[in-house]
Write a structure and sequence with these properties.
It is built from nine helices and 15 strands. The chain is α/β, with parallel strands linked by helices. The strands form four sheets. A nine-stranded mixed sheet has the order 7-6-8-9-3-10-11-12-13. A two-stranded antiparallel sheet has the order 1-2. A two-stranded antiparallel sheet has the order 4-5. Helix 4 packs parallel to helix 5 and helix 8 crosses helix 9. The radius of gyration is 23 Å and the shape is globular.
Amino acid sequence: MNDPHNLPHLHSTPAAEPQPLQPAQQRIRTAWTADELLAAEFPDPKWAVPGIISEGVNLLAGPPKVGKSWLSLGLALSVAAGGQAMDSVPVDAGPVLYLALEDTPRRLQTRMRKILGTGGRAPASLTLATSCPPLPQGGNEAIAQWIERNPEARMVVIDVFAKMRGNSAPGASAYDADYAAVGHAKRIADHYGIAMVLVHHVRKAASDDFLAEVSGTNGLAGAADATLVLKRARGQADGVLHVTGRDVDEAEYALRFYAEAGAWQLLEGPAAEHTIGDTRATILRFVRENPGAKPKQITAGTGLQPDLVRQTCARMANDAQLIRKDGGYVVPGENGGQA
């Protein structure tokens, strides 16, 4: 009897050349006339984590020790079991493959026990492995065969991607090498319509553009369908997850990390409300609910001191967190607020 969790090629001699993927249920069409394409009906993208991780390649980057592995393992457990990811996002259950290439079985066990808590049951539909050949040298085929044995599979996580990207082609530019490396994973994701999460690192130098912080060239984010960058945060949040992609709306999500449970929790409301000080967050929430509010109204509605409200609102306007309008304040992008 075939074990659906078995990965026969993970410990075998890597193939000399990438092996062709076996046909999925039907051949994927790649060309149309314009009228055919306009009339065609396509299914909506399949989401592993609705609004955050869709089918295709999802590049998840962040600095060392920020909690990327805790986040990716937590998502893998949630999707495999079904229920809620990050304590708030409903997810459908389905098989998940988690390649923890920098971990030992003991460390994985310890992390799972912490995330699941006392009495928590580990989902049998989550397959974990600590070794796999590079994608171009047999890894692609191993993952494809696992998906073939688990046709309802929803997600594959590679932590970390550097362990499986393989060697660059001789003479290839850095951009071309990065683009080709992600392309190996994208080939699987597109062929099977599955979400693949590639855990990666960011540069040491910070940037206002979170995409520019991804380590390597623009070829990595350019080849990926979505890029997620987990950054440390100030204020009430421990992290902010920046998300952008072809099928996902650009967004920022404030997260809180509970070290005792090894769990990331998605916080309600815009990330900006959680990454600023308490006074600014209070004013921002009030103005969002009462657009055009004047300082006296904000003082009455929040209970803050009048001088503190006036000074903080002025600073928030200078920092583009609020916009002055007709003697009051509005939130940028809302209720006529023009940034």
